[in-house]
Amino acid sequence: MFNIFLKNKYNYGSALVEVMVACSIFSILSFSLISATNKGINLSNVALRQVQASFLLEEGAESVKIIRDNNWSNISGFSNNTNYYTSFNTSNNTVSLSTTPNTIDNFFTRTIVFSTVSRDSNDDIATSGTVDSGTKKVTVTVSWPSGGVTLSKSLSFYVANIFN
User: Fold this and answer.
1) Hey, what long-range contacts does 123-131 have (CB within 8 A, 24 or more apart)?
2) Which of 149, 151, 79 is nearest to 114 (CA)?
3) What are the pLDDT digits (tens) for 114-146?
């Protein structure tokens, strides 16, 4: 009978070890779950910013087309290789471009740059040749900060004086 009491006395230590192992496993699983959730949220934020940047690119392209549709001289008057920024006048629903930098939602920066277009003897767009005054190359770039670096997306297209 004495041996039975003695065994129970030494079993209390093994229960403590089991509790410590269970707590360790629970802690590791909790940390892993929190880390995976945090990574998922960060990836969702990156994807959200990329989608927003894509929409801002499209909006920038549409802004240039609206300005072109209003009057080609608005487009031909812009200096080549100069950063322009969009601004919207909500009172009369117009869009304009200026060289004054601005941010969108205090986060994104959208620049619009115009370039000359040259045509070869076949009237195809070429790197050199005769300058086509009725066509401009437009590059819209949206940039934003992300984790200590600046990410950007760009869209290049041509606009032409289609109403002349």
Assistant:
1) 125/158
2) 79
3) 999 999 989 899 998 899 999 999 999 999 998
